[in-house]
TrEMBL record:
Domain Major facilitator superfamily (MFS) profile positions: 9-387
CDD domains: MFS_MosC_like
Principal place of residence: membrane
SUPFAM superfamilies given in the database record: MFS general substrate transporter
Protein topology in the membrane: Multi-pass membrane protein
Origin organism lineage: Bacteria, Bacillati, Actinomycetota, Actinomycetes, Micrococcales
Organism: Arthrobacter psychrochitiniphilus
Subcellular location: Cell membrane
One Pfam family from the record: MFS_1
The name this protein goes by in its record: MFS transporter
Listed PROSITE patterns: MFS (PS50850)
Superkingdom to which the source organism belongs: Bacteria
The UniProt record lists the keyword Oxidoreductase: no
GO cellular component, one term: plasma membrane
Amino acid sequence: MNQQAVRRAAIATFAVFAINGFVFASWAARIPAVTRILELTAGEMGLLLLTIAAGSVIALPLAGSVVAKIGTANTIRVGGFAASFGGLIIALALFQHNVSLTATGLFFFGVGIGLWDVAQNIEGADVERHLGRTIMPQFHAGFSGGALIGALVGAGLSALDVSMSLHLLVIVVGVCLAMVLVPRMFLPETPTSGSRADAAVKTHKGRSAWTEKRTLMVGLVVLGAALTEGAANDWIAKASVDGFGSTEAQGAIMFAVFVASMTLFRFFGGRFIDRFGRVPVLYGSLGSALVGLVIFVLAPNMVLAGVGAVLWGAGAAMGFPMGMSAAADDPARAAARVSVVSTIGYVAFLAGPPLLGFLGDHITIRWALLAIAVAIIASLLTAPAAKPLPASEFESVKH
């Protein structure tokens, strides 16, 4: 394939990852404002946030079939438009101070983000194969960078007292324009995106991807990485404030340290994977996350906790993108397997942090974060499953 077309597709894929992160973080950064507008307690807001998880958990297992039928570009468009529709509902709900309508909007938002996520990972894996080098971590760095920008924009608009409804309306317009234009630069749809891929989603020797041992073990790898990242996104700032008596600004800086470390390692991590291999880098990443988490929780002061945050962020950087690459090793089965692994990962990413919040009500959020260590250890034990598949095991070779 024309390398110029592949590079153009890589830029477009990076862009949709970054937009996805920007959209998600733009919402997350304004959660305190939403809590105030709807007059909710922290526990009630946690329950409301679970509606995003519900939408994504429903959409993610179906995303592979959707990609197989209409392709990655159109699936991303459907996801973007669904998320935008959810954003419009949320904007209206906040204007009316309506909790039930907000939950409805968040559900559609979750559905859209779920479809979008699976499709962008499948496209990223396809681009990675055509380039012949590891680039998936850089795409996820785009998500992290977009999330950081979204959080900063959200914080700035909050400081300027810009209404959440207006904020969401501007984002909806931008996303809809991007969904029309950016996916045009994706790679041409391959034959595996048609009926053969649809069959692959449903069966492999008569079995669903949900029954494949390797796919589920890769899902466990991603589960630990996703919970590690999601918990830090939601709780590292509050854990800093509550656990170390820091100011909210210092807590925000701690979150920025974590995200910056994660983003940096995602940008340059591909080189380590190409040199040392997927599984050794997974061991190093998950080990770093475990050590960093323990240092952060047990640190006697903010400085040492910051060191822990750097190691935590570096470790959280690589697990999710490497899991997506492992799930997509076989192009003919990529849609089904990425859908399964994404579902497992996003359940942890979206549902895990609220559950940690409930645990934190009893033992403080700082100590509750240690529960993540169990998931990280499970990911370490299953890391060998992410070893690249030999070409002889590709479903595409057998057709």
